Amino acid sequence: MEDRVLFWSLEYKIDLLILLLGRGMDFLSTWVATPNLALEGNPLMKKAGWKLGGLINVALVIVFSFSPSSSIMLCSTSLLVAGRNFQGAWLMRTMGEEGYREWFVGQMMQTKKTLFLLCLGGQTFPVLLLGACLVYFSYGVLVPTCIGLGMIGYAIAILFFTILSIWRIRKLMA
């Protein structure tokens, strides 16, 4: 399969469907967890809001659908993010966005930085390692390689945005 496909060809439509599924699940899980985006980890999407963020995502889906490898990587990352969002969404919704934030900040202030970072590494490193193994042992086969790259992207995103939010919380509380 070529890595670039023609607009509205069967391959494009499949890529579009793959991306709509992945990005849609990420959007849905974000809405369930934080309907007001008060807990959104990505500051750019938080600032953009639902409408502009939705338009940006539609544009990204349309553009990335021209490449099967990009579609698979982005879908993999998005589905992993959605799973992570859904894991805690029930608690965020039950406590309310502000209540959850206050509770979380309170817990963060009582936690040693080293313990938190060790646990964050323990959460992300296995995903990163598994993704790297998929990439290395796939020998260039499209789907497993791209899923592995998506897993690596997920691990990096979780590390980056979690550390960014913790840095902002600790900076506010200092």
Task: Explain what you see.
- This protein has 174 residues and is mostly helical.
- It has one domain (10-173).
- The protein is 83% helix and 0% strand.
- The chain is built from 6 helices and no strands.
- The mean pLDDT is 94.
Short descriptors:
mainly alpha, 6 helices, globular
Write the layout of secondary structure elements.
Elements: H1 10-33, H2 43-64, H3 68-95, H4 97-110, H5 113-137, H6 142-173
Helix pairs in contact: 1-2, 1-3, 3-4, 3-6, 5-6
**Number of structural domains:** 1
Terminal Cα separation, in Å? Answer: 54 Å
Output the structural class: mainly alpha
Total helical segments: 6
Order of H and E elements: HHHHHH
Q: Estimate the mean pLDDT confidence.
A: 94
Give me the count of strands. 0
Q: Which bin fits the share of residues in helices?
A: over 70%
Radius of gyration: 18 Å
Let me know the largest β-sheet.
Answer: none
Strand content: under 5%
